[in-house]
Write a structure and sequence with these properties.
about 220 residues, mainly alpha
Length: about 220
């Protein structure tokens, strides 16, 4: 059983200064980072396997790669709403936000409730987390019916005017993810909302609508 200290030593050995310096080009602000590519982290995560206690210890280190790894190895069945809120409060860049939502939080039984809470928060990464979580649930939770997504389209519409870059892109992702589920009704509802946003007087809402329309129509043609 690996310890957090042992994993940190391995992450340090895997680190690449050039990769670390290049993170800024992708708007990843992470002062405590070794510079380990995500592909290498996934190989390490596969070797470590699911480990709730190790994930907790890695998160507490504050290292960027350790936090990504925590999201990859934690057990969604053991994640509590309190843990989700505590970790979300630490989100300080889009990469950690998205990885935790994509690899862990969307698989918990608390995901829908946290979407509803987080999209109403004011912090840029707090709010982004709510919409990215909605996108990831739409992408991964194939067993869910249409209703949870139809019910949350108004949340997307309400936030579509938020001009902050990371919120705007999270809102857009959520709308597109809902529209690409294998449901004609959801696809129609997402397209209807996108079309309404595309003619909005608000420039951010208009961008969201036009981009979603373009992406959804492209997906429908190729799908």
């Amino acid at each position: 059983m690996a310890t957090a200290s042992e994993v940190l030593l391995e992450l340090e050995a895997l680190g690449d200064r050039t990769y670390r310096a290049g993170m800024a080009r992708y708007a990843i602000d992470a002062p405590k980072a070794f510079g380990v590519a995500v592909g290498k982290l996934r190989v390490l995560a596969k070797r470590l396997g699911r480990d709730h206690a190790l994930a907790q210890a890695l998160w507490e280190t504050g290292w960027y790669e350790a936090r990504l790894l925590a999201g990859m190895i934690d057990d969604p069945k053991r994640v509590t709403p309190e843990q989700m809120d505590a970790w979300r409060a630490d989100f300080d860049n889009w990469a950690v936000t998205d990885t935790l939502c994509f690899d862990l939080f969307d698989r918990t039984p608390h995901a829908l409730g946290k979407i509803d809470e987080w999209v109403r928060l004011e912090g840029e990464f707090d709010k982004r987390a709510g919409f990215v979580l909605l996108a990831c649930v739409a992408l991964h939770r194939k067993e869910l019916p249409d209703a949870p997504f139809v019910e949350r389209l108004p949340l997307i519409e309400a936030a579509a005017t938020d001009p902050r870059n990371f919120v705007k892109k999270g809102v857009n992702w959520a709308l597109r993810a809902i529209g690409t589920r294998k449901s004609p009704a959801l696809r129609a509802a997402a397209l209807e909302l996108a079309a309404r946003l595309a003619v909005s007087a608000d420039p951010t809402a208009r961008w969201n609508g036009k981009d979603a329309l373009r992406q959804l129509n492209k997906a429908n043609k190729t799908g």
